[in-house]
């Protein structure tokens, strides 16, 4: 017969409780405590109250476990939006591919003139962020379509920086520098050894 972790914990708590009650009863019968104002019946009533309180706490455990499972399921659903890659460079390449896909989907297609991978940074205790910057020339309507496409990706992509410069007034195009950041697991963020001031 196998005893689960939960049953072991319950047996351990029960054993500690029984040992505590026995210890209390031994101390209560000792001559030093015999002169106290509390009768053995009152002591037993106090122990029974504590036992009832412990039973109430134990009864709440299944509800807390169910809540934990629900929160874990919500976390798993939300973490589907985190980019999955073996390295930070692969995550940045995936992000760049998404940007190129969004620019090629425009009519006429927008050409990415230059791209640059930024430094991978930690974001909180569990995640990191990988930035990718691109420069291109496009119309304002194309730029809006590209931004909309990028922010509606299944992976979490955020526009961190958007610089727009006038380019060709006859064709109504602008030069754009766009920095997109993706969310990655913390394991892809390189460890920093010491700080340099």
Write the layout of secondary structure elements.
Blueprint: H1 5-29, H2 31-34, H3 40-78, H4 88-104, E1 112-117, E2 121-123, E3 127-139, H5 140-151, E4 157-168, E5 173-185
Antiparallel strand pairs: 1-3, 2-3, 3-5, 4-5
Helix pairs in contact: 1-3, 4-5
Shape: rod-shaped
Top CATH class of the largest domain: Alpha Beta
Specify the CATH architecture of the largest domain: 2-Layer Sandwich
Q: How much strand content do the residues show?
A: 15-25%
Q: What's the rounded overall pLDDT mean?
A: 84
**Helix share of residues?**
40-55%
Rg, Cα atoms, Å: 32 Å
Q: Any idea how many domains? A: 2
Quick summary of this structure?
The protein has 197 residues and is of the alpha+beta class. It is built from 5 helices and 5 strands; from the N terminus they run H-H-H-H-E-E-E-H-E-E.
Structure commentary:
This protein has 2 domains: about 5-80, no CATH class; about 90-190, Alpha-Beta Plaits, CATH 3.30.70.60. The protein starts with a helix and ends in a 12-residue tail after the last strand. The chain has helices spanning about 5-30, 30-35, 40-80, 90-105, 140-150, and strands at about 110-115, 120-125, 125-140, 155-170, 175-185. Helices cover about 50% and strands about 25% of the residues. A hairpin with a 3-residue loop joins strand 2 and strand 3. By secondary structure, the protein is α+β, with helices and mostly antiparallel strands.
């Amino acid at each position: 017969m196998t005893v689960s972790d939960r049953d072991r914990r319950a047996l351990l708590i029960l054993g500690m409780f029984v040992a505590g009650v026995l210890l209390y009863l031994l101390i209560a019968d000792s001559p030093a405590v015999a002169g106290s104002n509390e009768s053995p019946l009152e002591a037993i009533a106090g122990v029974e109250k504590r036992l009832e309180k412990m039973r109430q706490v134990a009864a709440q455990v299944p509800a807390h476990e169910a809540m934990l499972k629900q929160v874990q399921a919500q976390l798993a659903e939300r973490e589907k939006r985190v980019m999955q890659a073996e390295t930070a460079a692969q995550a940045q390449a995936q992000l760049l591919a998404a940007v190129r896909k969004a620019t090629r989907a425009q009519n006429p297609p927008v050409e990415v003139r230059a791209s640059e991978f930024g430094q991978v940074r930690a974001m909180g205790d569990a995640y990191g962020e990988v930035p990718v910057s691109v420069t291109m020339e496009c119309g304002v309507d194309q730029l809006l379509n590209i931004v909309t496409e990028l922010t509606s990706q299944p992976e979490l992509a955020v526009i961190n920086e958007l610089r727009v410069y006038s380019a060709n007034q006859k064709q109504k195009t602008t030069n754009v520098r766009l920095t997109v950041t993706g969310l990655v697991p913390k394991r892809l963020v390189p460890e920093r050894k010491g700080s340099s001031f």
